[in-house]
């Protein structure tokens, strides 16, 4: 732990990243790839002389899309980097070193994508009448760049679950062109297209002011694209999940159901089937050209899309379980080799940055530092995945024993890194944390100093202060 | 097998290439950031001016100016990705440490940018129709937008001062001792933004001479402000600047003076001189277009030289530490990989595997409660082979745990897995089988046992064995004997020896026959 450790209270690290990342995926897939592709398709139909209304419809949708993708989509994309850089610097830093080139090339595609989108948007009024083919070329160029950008990122996302031979060979090609690379590309791109078609469906149903026949044609196109794209995406999803090792995949039910619903897994089946049915119905309403039915069904369909995207990303991120880089680094940013070395040498000497203000007694500070290093990436204190709730009711030696066997006991948990003595320090700290009525172990109490000013201590408690414990 | 490598030590390009690339992409990013910030500030100022003077005619120009914010900010964001990527490769230690110390402020950049971009968009749309709403959005947007460079300048200033990291972490960045530098660095960025935004709109947006004259004054004022802020910033730098940086700075100042000369705006109402002067200004405007990028490059070069000077020693030291650490850790790689591969081959989707992973560490391979992890438990792990209980009861123990003991709850396994584990427990230990019906109670021992049960045991266990109200308050609480029984041998052992660590004390002073009958009594509670 060379870098300062930051964990988000209450919300937890995972949820913080998820809030940003899911928003980004929805916009980058659903809008930037999907909905803009629909706009280009509309404009292509106008250019082919199938009716001027296609052009008006496309242009009306393009405006909000440009604002959403450049203001929110792009920023949340960079945001994943900012947030993970602060929450998991060792993890994201390792990934960036490994995947510099795909990311750098993706940056080129991303830049081209934004430039083409801006040209497409600003030149539309001038070119759509005079030179529709040239405008279409810009649009198609944009879609190509957006898809390329998606493909480039897929390799990195796929690595984290299916590293293939990378852990032993450490060759870039093994890591990047992993078994789920291609199915994940199809899953994401066609999933995005399906969402985009539903967005266009909702937009047409709610805002289109033209003739009824024109609306029917537009709705039908959206519905057909949504069904076909969703089918391709679903098929790619099946292939994708077949290639994910069973040791990970088997935990998908818990990933979605969590402790709340894990004993009633059949609920998930019904929820997913229901969501699929609503999506299909919305698309079918479009195919039938029904305005009111499309209006009514498109809204829940889009909301369920948010749910399905969250579910997929949650499963993908959760089931990789104890590893951030499989075969290299655990989810808590501790490399596998370091965990083994720490059995003898310990973790505390490795922790360069320790927040001191929150815990005054040295043993409590060590306990908190070990918690931050070992557990804090997934568990919060008093928030999401509350550690106090997880160990409530366990005895002190029980906590100590359980901390020692996390890896076997719960297969997606990281192992404890540190010596036996450090494990006891952590267990004692956690036990006192979970049993506020119990008397804390003596070493967790701050020795009473008459000079200590409680006001000053309280003032530093709230801030995210840290102190270099050792140089 | 390749020996273990620290990924931070692998560089995708030779160092000079990385540095050159970083310089170029950061320059591009900064250029658009300055244009974006300058446009937003000019937009608000110009909007306020027109509004206060009640000059609605001018708002259409303002609308055009604010309209350029959308493409400028889009480019500023995308162009920022590359320098972010490269600095995380080239200067990982310093960058992650500084941004880690800024923590929440660093993360807050994301919502700030979203609020800023959307607000400025709304401002641009509303400024000619609903000025009050436009003003509110402009203020919110600009406040958010101008906070972002404050965080960036702070993080970068801290990054360049390794000696202050500890102090910044302990006392907060503002109190770490570089606040003056930070303030002037921030002001210098804002000043540069006004200059660049001003020149951009002077050249591309201002069409009529009156507007151009205004833009010249606006930009010239900002340039003069830059000279003051820049001098103050220079004064806050510590240590010798070094000859290359001094050369770059001198060149930059000279270019700035040249820009000020080109921006000077002799305003006359004389038609003839305006014509000739405006011709001269046209040339001046074109020159500004190449002068300003050159100014940016020289100033950035000076900044880069100073940054390298401050960071290179720290950087090579950090890399040396990493390399040494990697060499030590590499020895663990064979074991780490073996464990990883073993784990990859283990699928926790069946009772057998779950037992081996989740139960065996405490309860042992044969269920005797003799697992390695249970060795130091004050309340020993139960002997699973002695349990005869209802399926639903055991399931409840698995998903709720036993409060007051080390036995955790296992909701991490979904229902299907729990059922498979129950099958496994039954297959191994006949745990879910019903015990044989014991003979009916008869004889004095049985009578004694019944009396002891009623007088003593029922205090906690209740007469029906389901646990008394008092018993339920214990941690761990006694089991429900109507659904959970132990084999007679194990029950006798618990009655005789007690259950260590719990309220169940040893009753070895009871007569042997009474204890045996008590064990049978418990059986009867389960098998009625």
Give an overview in words.
- The complex is a heterodimer of chains A (about 475) and B (about 525).
- Chain A is mostly helical.
- Chain A has 2 domains: about 15-330; about 335-470, Cytochrome Bc1 Complex, Chain D, domain 2.
- Chain A is about 70% helix and about 0% strand.
- Chain A is built from 20 helices and 4 strands.
- Chain A has helices spanning about 15-45, 50-85, 90-100, 100-130, 130-160, 165-170, 170-175, 180-205, 210-245, 245-250, 250-260, 265-285, 290-320, 335-345, 360-375, 385-390, 395-405, 405-410, 420-435, 455-460; strands spanning about 325, 330, 355, 465-470.
- Chain A has a two-stranded antiparallel ribbon. Chain A has a two-stranded antiparallel ribbon with strand order 3-4.
- In chain A, a hairpin with a 3-residue loop joins strand 1 and strand 2 (about 330).
- In chain A, helix 1 (about 15-45) crosses helix 8 (about 180-205) and helix 17 packs across helix 19.
- By secondary structure, chain B is an all-alpha fold.
- Chain B has 3 domains: about 15-215, no CATH class; about 345-430, Cytochrome Bc1 Complex, Chain D, domain 2, CATH 1.10.760; about 445-525, Cytochrome c-like domain (Cytochrome Bc1 Complex, Chain D, domain 2), CATH 1.10.760.
- Chain B contains 18 helices and 2 strands.
- Chain B has helices spanning about 15-50, 60-65, 70-90, 90-125, 130-160, 165-170, 180-205, 210-235, 245-265, 270-330, 335-345, 350-365, 390-400, 415-430, 445-460, 470, 490-495, 510-525, and strands at about 385-390, 485.
- In chain B, helix 1 packs antiparallel against helix 3 (about 70-90), helix 4 (about 90-125) runs antiparallel to helix 5 and helix 12 crosses helix 14 (about 415-430).
- The longest helix of chain B is centred in the middle third of the chain and has 59 residues, at about 270-330.
- Chain B starts with 14 loop residues before the first helix and ends with a helix.
- Residues about 265-280 of chain B have low confidence and may be disordered.
């Amino acid at each position: 732990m060379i870098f300062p450790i930051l964990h988000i209270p209450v919300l937890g690290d995972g949820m913080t990243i998820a809030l940003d990342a899911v928003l980004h995926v929805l916009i980058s897939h659903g809008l930037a790839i999907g909905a803009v592709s629909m706009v280009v398709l509309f404009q292509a139909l106008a250019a082919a002389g199938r009716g001027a209304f296609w052009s008006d419809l496309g242009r009306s949708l393009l405006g909000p899309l440009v604002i959403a993708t450049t203001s929110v989509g792009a920023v949340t994309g960079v945001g994943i980097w900012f947030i993970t850089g602060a929450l998991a610097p060792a993890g994201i830093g390792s990934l960036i070193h490994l995947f510099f080139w795909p990311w750098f090339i993706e940056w080129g595609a991303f830049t081209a994508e934004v430039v083409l989108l801006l040209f497409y948007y600003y030149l539309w009024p001038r070119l759509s009448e005079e030179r529709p083919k040239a405008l279409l070329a810009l649009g198609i160029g944009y879609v190509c760049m957006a898809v390329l950008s998606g493909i480039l990122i897929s390799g990195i996302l796929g690595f984290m679950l299916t590293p293939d031979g990378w852990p032993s060979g450490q060759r870039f090609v093994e890591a990047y062109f992993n078994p789920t690379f291609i199915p994940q590309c199809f899953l994401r791109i066609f999933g995005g297209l399906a969402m985009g078609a539903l967005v266009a469906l909702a937009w047409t149903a709610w805002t289109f002011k033209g003739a009824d026949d024109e609306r029917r044609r537009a709705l039908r196109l959206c519905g057909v694209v949504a069904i076909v794209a969703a089918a391709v995406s679903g098929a790619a999803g099946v292939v994708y999940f077949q290639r994910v090792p069973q040791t990970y995949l088997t935990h998908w039910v818990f990933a979605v159901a969590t402790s709340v619903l894990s004993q009633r897994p059949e609920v998930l089946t019904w929820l997913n089937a229901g969501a699929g049915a609503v999506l299909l119905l919305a698309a079918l309403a479009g195919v039938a050209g029904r305005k009111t039915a499309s209006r009514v069904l498109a809204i829940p369909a889009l909301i369920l899309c948010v749910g399905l995207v969250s579910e997929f990303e949650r499963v993908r991120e959760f089931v990789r379980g104890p590893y951030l880089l499989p075969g290299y680094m655990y989810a808590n940013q501790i490399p596998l080799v370091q965990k083994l070395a720490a059995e003898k040498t310990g973790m505390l000497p490795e922790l360069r940055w320790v927040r001191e203000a929150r815990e005054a007694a040295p043993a409590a500070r060590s306990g908190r530092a070990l918690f931050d290093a070992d557990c804090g990436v997934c568990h919060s204190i008093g928030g999401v995945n509350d550690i106090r709730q997880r160990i409530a009711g366990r005895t002190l030696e029980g906590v100590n024993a359980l901390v020692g066997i996390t890896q076997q006991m719960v297969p997606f948990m990281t192992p404890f890194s540190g010596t036996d003595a450090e494990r006891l320090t952590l267990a004692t700290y956690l036990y006192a944390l979970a049993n506020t009525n119990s008397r804390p172990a003596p070493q967790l109490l701050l020795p009473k100093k008459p000079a200590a000013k409680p006001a000053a201590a309280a003032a530093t408690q709230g801030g995210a202060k840290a102190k270099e414990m050792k140089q | 097998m390749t020996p273990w490598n620290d990924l931070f030590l692998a560089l995708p390009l030779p160092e000079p290439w990385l540095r050159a690339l970083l310089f170029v992409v950061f320059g591009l990013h900064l250029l658009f950031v300055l244009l974006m910030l300058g446009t937003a500030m000019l937009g608000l100022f110009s909007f306020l001016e027109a509004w206060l003077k009640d000059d609605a005619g001018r708002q259409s120009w303002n609308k055009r100016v604010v309209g350029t914010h959308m493409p400028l900010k889009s480019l500023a964001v995308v162009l920022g990705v590359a320098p972010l990527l490269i600095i995380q490769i080239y200067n990982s230690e310093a960058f992650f440490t500084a941004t880690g110390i800024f923590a929440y402020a660093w993360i807050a950049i994301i919502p700030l940018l979203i609020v800023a971009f959307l607000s400025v968009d709304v401002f641009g749309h509303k400024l000619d129709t609903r000025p009050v709403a436009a003003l509110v959005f402009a203020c919110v947007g600009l406040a958010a937008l101008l906070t972002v460079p404050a965080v960036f300048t702070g993080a970068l200033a801290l990054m360049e001062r390794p000696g202050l990291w500890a102090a910044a972490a302990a006392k907060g960045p503002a109190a770490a001792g570089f606040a003056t530098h930070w303030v002037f660095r921030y002001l210098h960025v804002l000043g540069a933004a006004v200059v660049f935004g001003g020149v951009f709109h002077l050249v591309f947006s201002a069409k009529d001479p009156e507007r151009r004259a205004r833009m010249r004054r606006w930009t010239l004022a900002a340039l003069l402000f830059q000279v003051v802020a820049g001098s103050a910033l220079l004064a806050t730098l510590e240590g010798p600047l070094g000859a290359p940086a001094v050369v770059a700075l001198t060149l930059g100042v000279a270019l700035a003076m040249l820009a000020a000369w080109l921006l000077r705006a002799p305003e006359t109402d004389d038609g003839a001189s305006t014509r000739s002067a405006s011709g001269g200004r046209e040339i001046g405007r074109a020159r500004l277009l190449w002068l300003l990028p050159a100014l940016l490059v020289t100033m950035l070069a000076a900044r880069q030289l100073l940054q390298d000077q401050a960071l290179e020693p720290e950087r090579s030291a950090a890399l040396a530490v990493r390399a040494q650490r990697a060499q030590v850790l590499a020895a663990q790689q064979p074991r780490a990989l073996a464990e990883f591969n073993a784990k990859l081959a283990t699928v926790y989707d069946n009772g057998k595997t779950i037992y081996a992973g989740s139960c065996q560490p405490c309860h042992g391979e044969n269920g005797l409660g003799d697992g390695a992890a249970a060795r130091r438990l004050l309340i020993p792990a139960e002997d699973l082979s002695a349990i005869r209980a209802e399926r639903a009861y055991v399931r409840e123990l698995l998903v709720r745990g036993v409060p007051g003991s080390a036995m955790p709850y296992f909701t991490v396994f979904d229902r299907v897995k729990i059922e498979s584990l129950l099958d496994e427990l039954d297959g191994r230990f006949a745990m879910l089988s019903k015990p044989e019906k014991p003979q009916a109670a008869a004889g004095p021992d049985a009578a004694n046992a019944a009396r002891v049960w009623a007088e003593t045991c029922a205090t906690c266990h209740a007469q029906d064995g389901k646990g008394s109200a008092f018993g339920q308050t214990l941690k761990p609480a006694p089991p429900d004997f109507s659904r959970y029984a132990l084999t007679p041998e194990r029950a006798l052992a618990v009655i005789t020896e007690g259950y260590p660590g719990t309220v169940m004390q040893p009753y070895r002073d009871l007569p042997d026959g009474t204890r045996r009958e008590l064990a049978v009594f418990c059986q009867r509670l389960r098998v009625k």
